[in-house]
């Protein structure tokens, strides 16, 4: 499985960005997909996850009400719509996926930089 992120960039505070994660390979059994982020000098943070059918979602408290995760299984693509961006959202965002319903994520993308200017 390969995961490729896109959509990062520079945006002003209060603005929006949409990240995409295109999955290729044996994607049929990727039950959980999600996004991590890591800011410079900070610990990695799990931002959001979504189950294969989209029925179960998780959001970190820091992004609830501002970010929306979704996935289109027909296109093997996951999205993260980020609204009302804050400077503290600046980080490298990683697409992740796993086959199991729990445990560590098996697959990681290369990351995409999101920079929010204040």
How would you sum up this structure, described in words?
The chain is mainly β and 118 residues long. The chain is 0% helix and 53% strand. It has no helices and 11 strands. Strands 2, 4, 5, 6, 9, 10 and 11 form a 7-stranded mixed beta sheet that branches. It is globular and about 40 Å long. The N and C termini lie far apart (37 Å).
Please state the structural category. mainly beta
Distance between the termini: 37 Å
Element string (H = helix, E = strand): EEEEEEEEEEE
pLDDT averaged over residues: 96
Contiguous runs where pLDDT drops below 50 for at least 5 residues? none
Alpha carbon gyration radius:
13 Å
Please tally the helical runs, counting DSSP H or I stretches of 4 or more residues: 0
Portion in beta strands: over 45%
**Helix fraction by DSSP (H/I, runs of at least 4):** under 10%
Using the alpha-carbon principal axes, give the shape: globular
Major sheet size, sense and barrel closure:
7 strands, mixed
How many β-strands, per DSSP? 11
């Amino acid at each position: 499985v390969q995961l490729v992120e896109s959509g990062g960039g520079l945006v002003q505070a209060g603005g929006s960005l949409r990240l995409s994660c295109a999955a290729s390979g044996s994607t049929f059994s990727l039950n959980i997909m999600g996004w991590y982020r890591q800011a410079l000098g900070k610990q990695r943070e799990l931002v959001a996850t979504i189950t294969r059918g989209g029925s179960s979602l998780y959001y970190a408290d820091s992004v609830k009400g501002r970010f929306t995760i979704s996935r289109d299984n027909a296109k093997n693509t996951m999205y993260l719509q980020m609204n009302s961006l804050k400077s503290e959202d600046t980080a490298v965002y990683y697409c992740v996926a796993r086959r199991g319903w729990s445990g560590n994520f098996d697959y990681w993308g290369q990351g995409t930089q999101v920079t929010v200017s204040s």
